[in-house]
Amino acid sequence: MIYNVQLEQKRSRIDYDECDVKFSVGLSGKEFNHLRSHLLEESEYIKPYLNMLDKGAEVEQAILFTCDKEKYGLVVIPSETGYARYTAFVPDATRMPEHLQYSSLDEYDGEMIRVVDKYAKQAVENQTDGEYNLDLDEVYDEYKFREFNQNLFLDMLRERPEIDDIEYSSGVYTAKISREHLSNDEYYRLYQDDIDIMEAKHILWMRNAGGEQADFRGCKMDGIQFNGKNFGGAIFDDSIITNSDFEGALLMSASFNQAEIHTCGFKNVTAEEVKAENTAFIDCDFTQADFLESSLKGTAFDNCDFSCITIAGSCIKDTQFIGTTPDQEELDKCYETKPDSNEELNMKL
Prior knowledge:
A hairpin with a 5-residue loop joins strand 2 and strand 3 (73-78). Strands 8-9-10-11-12-13-14 form a seven-stranded parallel sheet. The longest helix has 23 residues, at 103-125. By secondary structure, it is an alpha/beta fold. The protein folds into three domains: 20-100; 103-181; 187-349. Helix 3 (103-125) packs across helix 5. The chain is built from seven helices and 14 strands.
């Protein structure tokens, strides 16, 4: 959240004064900048209001000047001749006139903030798989005013740092918890749209054209179409991926360390120099997959299809093949300790 404020260095305390804002005056950007730059000059913007202010009032009376298309403003207590005798910069001035006139707005805003705050915290505390289903009937009962603005409530909830987004499906609103507020044992759930956006950013990163490296650590994905996508060098460590298709994907130098991957297709993937250490692949299809010179240390492959897989030059130290194994010819081209350490290629398997 960016605010325009007036900062003072090393103040030992903050003092404030009361003033009674009697008028709110909207100025153009040019007019506002002239006023704030010439506060000690008699001002054509101040003079019209001098005779309408009570100079003998118990609380000093003031004018609020706001800037067109900006949120900030100035509170001015004028001199008798029309220059700004006292001034204060106000970061969120545009809200003041309405709230000065309509005190009920304060009550309404306060109640909306209270309800949103309650359900943002409730979503974090009661999340399941990084998500929370909102019971809007319960929210209606919680809200003390008769008229409840559901769309405003949802928009405000989306703006909370605890919530990434709110999705609607089959009559249910589901809040997606942001990564920073996930429970220690919860994974951050990603959907197809998320993956598509991450790939676009990742490709820019690969080309040194901005973007960012795709990082799936701590994420949970189900039913994702990775087929044909380019995630070379991406980080899939400590992720859970189920029922997803990587056919034809480019995964060179990607890492899948300590990931759990169930019922996924890796047909025809290009995955040279991949790191998949201490990973679990269960019921996965590696037909014609290229995992040349990859590190598969400590990884378990349970009931996987290795038809025509290429894993030559890969490290298979402590690797387990349960139920099915690659062709012995491929295994003979693998090693348990790097060949450059004068050890023979792995021949035991």
